[in-house]
Specification:
With 509 residues, this protein is α+β, with helices and mostly antiparallel strands. The chain has 3 domains: 10-47 and 158-231 and 338-376, 3-Layer(bba) Sandwich (FAD/NAD(P)-binding domain), CATH 3.50.50.60; 63-154 and 233-326, D-Amino Acid Oxidase, subunit A, domain 2 (D-Amino Acid Oxidase, Chain A, domain 2); 402-508, Alpha-glycerophosphate oxidase, cap domain (Helicase, Ruva Protein, domain 3). Strand 13 (261-267) and strand 14 form a beta hairpin. The longest helix has 23 residues, at 486-508. It is built from 13 helices and 20 strands. The chain has helices at 20-31, 68-84, 105-117, 156-169, 216-223, 292-305, 365-376, 402-412, 418-428, 433-436, 455-464, 470-477, 486-508, and strands at 10-16, 36-39, 55-56, 89-97, 128-131, 145-154, 173-175, 178-186, 189-196, 199-210, 232-243, 251-255, 261-267, 271-275, 279-280, 317-326, 340-345, 354-359, 448-450, 453-454. The structure holds flavin-adenine dinucleotide. Flavin-adenine dinucleotide binds at residues 16-22, 39-42, 46-49, 51-55, 57, 179-180, 211-215, 219, 223, 237, 276, 321-324, 357, 360-363.
């Protein structure tokens, strides 16, 4: 972890929160020539931004809630983001089994027509009808037809990390494991108090951006001692992970009797991820976890659709997150708007401004950041033009195709297994050479912790991607967490403790 200089530096923008919205804004602002500081109290993406359904999608069901602005923007963003980060984002076909008692075919076809035409679409294929043969189909035999359309799947936590890396490369200072404990306006600047394991320090900033996700309103009330301009609805969503339910790389979108939809999505080669739920959440966002009701609900929806019948015993893992949604006073948690609202506040015109982010989706983070910059333009009239639409994220530079990169890795690194080459190519893209550059064989990669994770990659993640502990590496950066045994995790923890000690000694020297 890096610490800022002891002197009270004044940044143009200080961002609170290292989820997708915070890093997206930090990156956009840094690229426009502003000096930027971002603090994250835990690891990057350790909360909502790693607990998503991992889709870059227009949101077919939001059409039913008449969220046309959001759907149009999100649909267009699919291809923009796909081009920016083809290693961590991939097109995916979605199959919606037809359940005539829930939604008539004409309604779904109309929705899909809008979905195909509302946003710009060049690479993603359009929708079509499908029929299922009882013998081959993984679905229950009463489901004989359905619809198919395109969206994209993303490695959500890596999308956050790549944006943070790009922000840093443009001069932003990103500090993790560092909480902003309070901030006060002092005339035209903010004085921010930060706390981490090493102690406390202060920074100054001309503008404060509150991208604290589920903590956005709490941060305003408790740490800034101000009134929040909007209410926030915390809506929990959970997923279960089970062994692969069916072959192939398509996802299913299942309609449930309560009018909600639930996805079954291929996950990490060996698994299927089933989710999500929508329930009001009143607890501390740090502590969110799946409830027995949610587990039963997801198993029921899956069993209503698939031949393979699941029970709790089949669940390999679960994860839950809290959507920080802007309160639109909707009665139904599933219907609360998924759109974002940015609130700019100043008590007097000469006061340092506060920009708070309410709601949002992974899919629309880049547009949200552009919109944040429009709000800040009047305070920084000299800032550069929007730039993120065309800019590649780290790892997408010089990347002809992920398949070619996999072959290149296999040719250059003797003894590497295909699964590891695929994982490296998808996680790091062309940046994989940052830690493989001088390597000709897996035997040169240092200690092997299991499942293709070697010391050289771990060192890279600590030095270049803010990783501190085994969760940072296994859950959010390599997604190897489902493979590692407790003993293997212990070995990795031990190595990390020694590595941090070595780095500390180097810093002192
Ligand atoms: C179940 C579920 C499924 C979803 N699926 C999708 C999907 O498929 N596609 C999609 O586009 N979107 C999806 N979303 C929405 C998307 O995940 C969220 O909109 C997005 O991740 C919110 O990001 P954020 O940066 O606002 O919040 P977060 O990711 O929670 O980041 C906020 C960060 O602020 C930090 N923080 C808070 N207070 C402080 C402080 N005082 N000092 C320092 N740091 C602080 C927190 O530690 C946290 O890391 C889903 C959400 C959920 C819950």
């Amino acid at each position: 972890m890096t610490n800022p200089n002891e002197t009270l530096k004044c940044y143009d923008v200080a961002v609170i929160g290292g989820g997708i919205n915070g890093v997206g804004i930090a990156n956009d602002a840094a690229g426009r020539g502003l000096s930027v500081f971002l603090c994250e109290k835990d690891d990057l993406a350790s909360h909502t931004s790693s607990a998503s359904s991992k889709l870059i999608h227009g949101g077919l069901r939001y059409l039913e809630h008449k969220e046309f602005r959001l759907v149009r923007e999100a649909l267009a963003e699919r291809e923009v983001l796909l081009a920016k980060a083809p290693h961590i984002i991939r097109p995916m076909r979605f199959i919606m089994p037809h359940r005539p008692h829930l939604r008539p075919a004409w309604l779904i076809r109309t929705g899909l027509f809008f979905y195909d035409h509302l946003g710009k679409r060049e690479k993603l294929a359009g929708s079509n009808n499908v029929t299922f043969q009882p013998v081959d189909s993984p679905l229950n035999k009463d489901i004989t037809r359905g619809f198919e359309y395109s969206d994209c799947a993303v490695d959500d936590s890596r999308l956050v990390i790549l944006n943070a890396m790009q922000a840093r490369e443009q001069g932003a200072q990103i500090v993790t494991q560092t909480r902003c404990i309070s901030a006060q306006r002092m005339d035209s600047v903010w004085i921010l108090d930060m706390e981490n394991q090493q102690g406390r320090f202060q920074i100054q900033a001309k503008v404060l951006v509150n991208a604290a996700g589920p903590w956005v309103a709490q941060f305003i009330r408790e740490d800034l001692k101000l009134q929040s301009p909007y209410g926030i609805r915390l809506i929990q969503g959970s997923h279960i992970i089970v062994p692969k339910l069916y072959e192939g790389d398509k996802a299913f979108i299942m309609q449930n009797d309560d009018q909600r939809i639930v996805f079954a999505i291929p996950y990490l080669e060996k698994y299927t991820m089933i989710g999500t739920t929508d329930r009001e959440y009143a607890g501390e966002p740090n502590k969110v976890e799946i409830s027995a009701d949610e587990t039963a609900y997801l198993l029921d929806v899956s069993n209503d659709h698939f031949k393979t019948q699941l029970s709790e015993m089949d669940i390999v893992s679960t994860f839950s997150g809290v959507r920080p949604l802007c309160d639109d006073e909707s009665d139904n948690p599933a219907a609360v708007t998924r759109d974002y609202t940015l609130a700019l506040s100043q008590e007097n015109v000469s006061d340092a401004p506060l920009l708070s982010v309410f709601g949002g989706k992974l899919t629309t983070y880049r547009k949200l950041a552009e919109s944040a910059m429009e709000h800040l333009q009047k305070f920084f009239p000299e800032i550069k033009q929007p730039w993120t639409e065309q800019a590649l994220l780290p790892g997408a530079e010089n990347l002809r195709s992920v398949d070619e990169l996999i072959t290149e890795i296999e040719n250059k690194i003797k003894g590497v297994d295909t699964g590891t080459a695929q994982r490296w190519a998808h996680a790091y893209g062309s940046r994989v050479w940052s830690f493989l550059k001088h390597t000709g064989s897996v035997h040169e990669l240092g200690q092997h912790f299991g499942h293709g994770l070697y010391a050289q990659e771990v060192d890279y993640l600590v030095d270049a991607e803010w990783a501190v502990d085994s969760d940072d590496i296994l859950k959010r950066r390599s997604k190897l967490y489902l493979e590692f045994s407790l003993d293997e995790i212990l070995l990795l923890d031990q190595y990390l403790a020694e590595l941090h000690e070595r780095r500390l000694q180097q810093d002192v020297a």
